[in-house]
Every structure is written in structure tokens, then in C-alpha cells.
Please model this.
Amino acid sequence: MRVLNHTQYRTADLAAFFRAGLKAQVGAEWKSYVIEVYPYGKRRISRARYNQPRIWMVLPEEWQGPDGLWQSAVRGWALPRKWKSLPRRANIVRLAWVFVHEVGHTLGLHHKDMQTIGGMEIPPWCLGLEIRSKEAPVRTSGDRATSRAAHVQAMVERWGRRLVVARRTLAKWRRKARYYERRAAAAPKENDACQR
Ligand SMILES: [Zn+2]
Model:
């Protein structure tokens, strides 16, 4: 089995999950499977090849709410601030239902041969498994000083560019202002017409 992981979830957790699901459905054939995992957004729908051990899985980003319910963090939804500190994990049961469905396709099943996901039992093999986010890299004070210095340098460059643009823009408007001043100076005085 190969797991090609394009998500922020831990590859070891994903592999343990797929292995358990495959062993339950296809037995020793589990080793021949190639499973590619995408975050929701890059792809939206999990899919599989008919009669071939190839599956593409899409993992939505979800948070477990304080009431134990899984809450979708669909893009554009604001999450309550107090939940943001909770560890991010994939909804294991929902993912197991999708995986069972996709493995069904690899065994040659078409939708008319399958149960809808809503009608499925909770797959017992997924209980107790979890798919956790990769740990955020631990930042040392040295890293932080480096990134602060980089930020300062970036700001110096950005404002330097803005200064160049601002000087150019100011010069342009001064030229225009001089044009109008010259025109005003050259124009006949208001009473000139009467005096002629
Ligand atoms: Zn399907």
C-alpha cells in the first residue's frame, strides 16, 4: 500500500486508517492499493477506479466541537473563537463511510450495487482510530528572531518601493500643477475684454 499525502494530516494516521479499512474489505489485497489524499478544495470528491486498487480521497477540514459533535469548517464558515484552539482532526466515521464506498468501486461495484452512505452501519474497524493534523513545527527563539529580522527587511523593501512610486507620482502632479499655474498666468485678466 502506498499513501500519497497532500494534506496537513499525519501520513502515519492516514496509513493506519486505510490499512484497517482495506484489511476489513479486501484482506491481503490491501498491500497493492495506492491511495492519494487531497485536502478539500484541491479536489472536492473522493473517487476510485473500477476494478483497480487506486483511490483518491478528499479530506474535509473539520473541528470537533465542545459538545462532541463534528462541525464542518466549510470554507467561508466562521468558527467560534473558543474552538480554534482545539486540535484539528478528521471526522473518522464519515471518512470511513466514504472509504468503504470507494473501496467498493475498486471491487467493481457500481452505485446501484451499493448502500447509500446514509444507510451504512458505522464501520467497526474505524473506531478508536484518529487522523490528526501534523504537529506545527516547534519554533525556537532563534527562529523567531530570524523571522522578525526577515519581516523588518521586507518592510524596508516595501516602503522603499512605495517611496519611489510616491516621488514619481508627486512629480507628475507638480508638473500638472505648474501647467495650470502657467495657463492662469498667461490667460487674459477678467476685465481685459472691456479694456480693449
Ligand atoms: Zn461512488
